[in-house]
Amino acid sequence: MLNRRNFLTAAIGVAAAGTLAACAKEDGDSSTSSGGSKTITLGFSQVGSESGWRSANTDSVKSAAKEAGYNLKFSDAQQKQENQISAIRSYIAQKVDVIAFSPVVVTGWDAVLKEAKAAKIPVVLTDRSVETSDQSLYVTLVGSDFTDEGRRAARILEKVLTKAGHKGAVKIAQLEGTTGAAPAIERAKGFKEVMDADHADDWKIVVSQTGDFTRAGGKQVMAAFLQSNPDVNVLFAHNDDMAIGAIQSIEAAGKKPGKDILIVSIDGVKDGFVAMSEGKINAIVECNPLLGPQLMDVVKKVKNGEKVERWIKTKEGDFMQDQAKAALPTRKY
Q1: Domain of 201: which CATH number?
Q2: Record keywords: Signal included (predicted)?
Q3: Residue 197 near residue 163 (C-beta atoms within 8 A)
Q4: What are residue 214's phi and psi, to 5 degrees?
Q5: What confidence tens digit (pLDDT) does each residue in 44-93 have?
Q6: Distance CA 239, CA 231 (A)
Q7: Fewer CB within 10 Å, N side or C side of the chain?
Q8: Dihedral sign, CA of 201, 203, 206, 211?
């Protein structure tokens, strides 16, 4: 286990940093704080850059760290858990003050989190949760309630169906997020809760598969959906990027997105609002990516030994198609 005692630790740190450089992109920001106090060094491991939401999240973290005067060591895991684990071990070896990361998947973190705890480096989760046998291995989660987002998606679909005057069976195609990722698991769970409780007789998910949160994945999987289930009349996409990719396949099949196939997605990125303003997405459940300022505030409190809430939730809204044009100018990401 990594510690801070001797030369061997430094050697391990160099090796870990070298491994990380080979499998993930890392950069450091040499910002310094004013007033002569010791600059907080934050090690942050991002999932990747799979979507517009993720890019906005990364920009928010970087800009907030710069504004706070923190020394940010940033790593892009390229959607690979092994890269994140390497990054976290590198941060431990570098003796950063706080480690934050957005987990690629929910499981498989106990070993590296125990290493961080042994090194007395607090860990903050951002955006996504983990499943761990020891809740003390991380301090807090800064992010959304994905299960509630799934419920909200089902509730807003009720409004979409009513507005469209839909009668009869609702045959739903579901584009899932990355397999094993918290938002994919929890959004599907929340949506199904409402469906099973209130629509067991008329709603059915006839096909469901991961599109890996990417436009390319959404396009490819939706094309396959339409071949195997050409009569689907609703698409529930776990994020806007997959919905936008799916729209391309729906149009290629000679159908009208937003009419022949009603679409509800989650995120609220600008491109999603553009598609909604064009009538191609019917409703969007917002998931706010601008977590940077909240994260930096939490990092400061954690570094100072202050108590923080176990889960710091973001504020979000829901949007119907007729709200898209008015809301579009407010989309900064």
Answers
A1: 3.40.50.2300
A2: yes
A3: no
A4: -115, 155
A5: 999 999 899 999 999 999 999 999 999 999 999 999 999 999 999 999 99
A6: 22
A7: N
A8: negative
Are 158 and 148 members of one domain? yes
Helix segments in the chain, DSSP class H: 7-23, 52-68, 81-93, 110-118, 146-164, 182-198, 215-228, 240-252, 270-277, 292-303, 324-327
Q: In sequence order, what are the residues at sequence separation of 6 or more whose Cβ sits closer than 8 angstroms to the Cβ of residue 205? A: 172, 173, 174, 192, 195, 236
User: Is the pLDDT assigned to residue 153 strictly greater than 50?
Assistant: yes
> How far is 197 from 167, CA to CA, in rounded Å?
19
Q: What is the DSSP letter of 283?
A: E
State which residues form the domain around 233. 144-286
- Please count the structural domains in the chain: 2
Q: Which residues contact 106 (CB under 8 A, 6 or more apart)?
A: 128, 129, 130, 131, 180, 181, 182, 185
* β-strand pairing of 41-46 with 234-237: unpaired
How far apart CA 74 and CA 79 sit, in angstroms, is 14
Is 46 in the same domain as 88? yes
CA distance readout (Å), 154 to 4, 190, 242, 259: 50, 8, 18, 18
- How far apart CA 182 and CA 175 sit, in angstroms, is 15
Give the helix, strand, coil percentages of the chain, each rounded to 5.
45, 20, 35
Same domain, 134 and 181: no
